[in-house]
Every structure is written in structure tokens, then in C-alpha cells.
Amino acid sequence: MRLLHVTQGYAPAIGGTERLIQRLSEELVSSFGDEVTVFTTDCYSGEAFNRPDLPRLAVGEEVRGGVRIRRFPVRARLSRLFLPAQRIAYWRGWPLSQNLRMLYQGPLVPGLARAIRRQPADVVAASSFPLRHMFTSLRAARDSGRPCVFYGGVHPDDDWGFGRPMIYEAMNKAARCVAYTQYEADHARAQGVDPARLSVVPPGVDAEHFGTTDREQARQTLGLPAGVPVIGYIGQLGYHKGVDALLRAMPIVWQERPEARLLIAGARATFAAHIDETVAGWPSDFRDRVTLRYDFDESDKPLLYSALDVFAYPSGYESFGIAFLEAWATGLPVVGCRRGAISSVVEAGRDGLLVPFQDEAMLAAALLTLLRSPAWRRSLGEAGRRKVLADLTWSRVAARFRQVLVQARDGS
Predict the structure, then answer these.
(1) In Å, how far are 1, 127, 404 from 123, measured between CA atoms?
(2) What H or E segment, with its residue span, contains residue 384?
(3) How many CA atoms within 13 Å lie on the side-chain side of 284?
(4) What confidence tens digit (pLDDT) does each residue in 298-315 have?
(5) CA 272 to CA 280: how far, in whole Å?
(6) Among 42, 259, 323, 386, whose CB has the most other CB atoms within 10 angstroms?
(7) Alpha-carbon gap, residue 94 to 382, rounded angstroms
(8) 313, 235 in Cβ contact below 8 A?
């Protein structure tokens, strides 16, 4: 099968969708012999779609992991011009608000539609909403007589991003739509999307890469002390990920467990400045309990997880949360937020705990509960690992994605 993936970013760009499309593309090539091409942008992160001052990746073509990748330049300055108009339109509820939000958010990629129409492919698959390339992919695929498949990424709690009827109208024009959770599929149906177009397929994880490093060895490598509890966050850095709530929760944790350490690791996005400022404002004994690892290599991720006792991922906007899978693959208990799709991923009391979004007191209470009970931590982590190994490895997940793509190709 010849497949064209169209996505907002691709490694080394950061983000869950970026990582998902990379691993899915590589797995389709290696396991099924498919010919996969990826059209993507030159942006290192989604922040750059309307921020011309942020770093860019090289425009052009390359082959990585058997996948052909073509990066297109984004016109961030043009998107930036729509900032005032979309803000006013959204506040006032004007009918064109959704269109102005899309133009501001971008990415604006000249020539993308033409390139999609010209690219030999049996299926065009795009991810993720609410970004503009989704609509471009649908139009170009239909113009060239090929099916278009949408992959998930809907966050119903984000009204600015997803309170747009045009998203669900587009989904009803696609050949198939993949939701990462049943929660997302149910939301799409409630918005009028034809259930016959919907399939639920979660992301996957390379479980064999995680949980292979001894905890104390990992801590020694990272400069963390031996024999003390370590709470960690590994992922994108941003307000919507709840990192600020974790920072507010830690002084509460330290009142009872002053020996505990905090590890925060992620790419240095603009939110990193807030993290640095917050930590710098703490007393020296608090600062000494924090380890920040920015811009780590992807190959270091299993080492980072291995150093932890508890994985805290208090994000409020997840269509799934691949970080949960990585933590579970390491055998860690997780703490997430009772918000959106996360409640259908983390089974509270079975493989993790859930707290309200941006509630540092409840987050601290959950972390302390786990720190007090090593046996329960171990039980929750083992349950998560069993879940991953049973159904969420990339070999299994890629086969399910491919089944949807084949159905779209064959019109079944």
C-alpha cells in the first residue's frame, strides 16, 4: 500500500502526534512493506506556526527509518496577522470565528494542496485537528479521487480549539476517522459524525525499550541521590500539560517528604522560562531537590523513566497521553487528571490515580498517597505494564491502524 501521511510535525519536532506518526510510519514500512511518505512542516513545535521568531528545521526531503519525509515552509508571519481578528470574533461569537481561528493557528503551508494532489498514494491520512492542514488534506485527496483518513486528536474541553463545527463537517466527508479513545469517538458522534466512519485505535509504545535499566543505576547516571523517592514529569512543557500545577504541588509534598526529589524533562519550549523562574524563586533547599533535563535525546527517555518512583502527568488536554504508556511500560504508577479522554485511559485505583486539573492540593495528596505505599505503587505500575504488553505495543497497534487504512482504500 502507498500511504501519504500529512501532519504538523515529524521528528525531531516535538509532540505526541509527531511521535505517533513517526512510529506508525516506520512500523508500516518495516512490518508490512508499505511505501510511506510524510508531508510535514519545518516547525520544531506547534508554537512556531504563528511565531516567526522561533527556530525552524531544514526545508527539503530526507529518508529516515525507511520513510520519505518532505518538510514544507510555514508562513508564520501571515498567520500572525489574524491574531486580533480571531480574538475579537471568538469573544463576540461571530460566525466566521472558526475560520479566523484556523487561519491564525495555521499552519499556513503554500503549495501543500498541490503537492498532495500530485503525490502517488492509495490513501491520504492526516493528523491532527484543529489545524489547517487537515482541511487541505481532505480537499486535495477528494480532488484527486482518493480516500482521506483522519487520525484522532480532539480535545472537547478546549472550546477555542475544538468548538468548531467545521471539524465535524470535515470528519463526515472523510472515508474513515480514527479516535484514540472511546471518549473521543462518543464526542464525535454527539457532534453528528456518522458512527460508521469511526474506529477506535489507541497509540502504541515500544515497550521493549522501557524498564531495562536498574533504578539506582539510572539515578546515578542522572546525578540523583540513591534511596530517596523521585517524582517525575517527562513530556511537552506547557500550561496545558499541568507542569505549573506540579510545581505548586511540590512544596506541599516536601512538607511531609522533604527528601523527595522532582525531575522535569522535556524540550525547551517557551514555557521552560516559567519553570526556570519558578524554581529560581524557591529557597535554596527546594531548588536543590529539583533536576531539570531540557532537550534530552529520545534515546535517553527510558533512562529518565527508570529513575522515577511515581510519574506525574497532570495534563488537561490529552487525546490519549503516550507518556502514560511509556511510564506503564517502565512499571510505574501514574497520576493524571480527571479530564477529557484521560479518564478512559487511566483506570483510577487500578493503574494510576486521577485528580482535578490545576488542583495542586489534590495532586500533592495523590503523590503523597503513593509515596506512603511502596506496595501499592508497585501494584499500580505492574497493572499498567500488563495493559501495555497485552494490547498497546506498536506491533499490535500498527496492524489496527493499517486495517482502517485498507478499509478506506477498498471502500469497505
Answers:
(1) 8, 13, 11
(2) helix 374-391
(3) 0
(4) 899 999 999 999 999 999
(5) 12
(6) 323
(7) 50
(8) yes
DSSP H or E run through 406: helix 394-410
DSSP per residue, 148-162: EEE-----TT-HHHH
Cell of 325: 504508556
In the block, which residue shows the cell 516567526? 52
Residues 84 and 180 in one domain: yes
The 10s digit of each residue's pLDDT in 179-219 is 999 999 999 999 999 999 999 999 999 999 999 889 999 99
- Surface-to-core class of residue 296, CB atoms within 10 Å of its CB (0-12 exposed, 13-18 middle, 19+ buried): middle
197 and 116, same domain (yes or no): yes
Q: What is the chain's percent helix, strand, coil content, to nearest 5?
A: 50, 15, 35
Which of 362, 314, 316 has its CA nearest to residue 339? 316
Cα dihedral sign, 351-128-29-300: negative
261-266 and 352-355: which strand pairing?
A: unpaired
| Enclosing domain of residue 260 | 207-391
Tell me which of 213 and 70 has the higher pLDDT.
Answer: 70
Looking at the chain, the number of H-run helices and the number of E-run strands are 18, 14
Domain tally for the chain?
2
d(CA 218, CA 238): 26
| pTM of the predicted model as reported, rounded to 2 decimal places | 0.93
What is the spatial distance between Cα 409 and Cα 412, in angstroms, rounded to a whole number? Answer: 8
C-alpha cell at 145: 479521487
- Do 115 and 234 belong to one domain? no
| Judgement on whether residues 173 and 37 belong to the same structural domain of the protein | yes
**DSSP 3-state of 410:** helix
User: What one-letter code names the amino acid at 108?
Assistant: L
In this structure, are residues 165 and 98 in contact, taking their beta carbons and an 8 Å threshold?
Answer: yes
Pair (249, 144) in one structural domain: no
Rg of the Cα atoms in the chain: 21
Q: Contact at 8 Å (CB) between 39 and 6?
A: yes
C-alpha cell at 280: 529560581
For the chain, what is the largest distance between any 2 Cα atoms, rounded to a whole number of angstroms? 64
Cell of 365: 495528596
Range list of H helices, 212-292: 215-222, 243-256, 272-280, 284-287
Residues 275 and 264 sit within 8 Å (Cβ to Cβ): yes
Give the other-Cβ count within 10 Å of 284's Cβ: 6
Q: Domain check: are 261 and 365 in the same one?
A: yes
Residues 166 and 264 in one domain: no
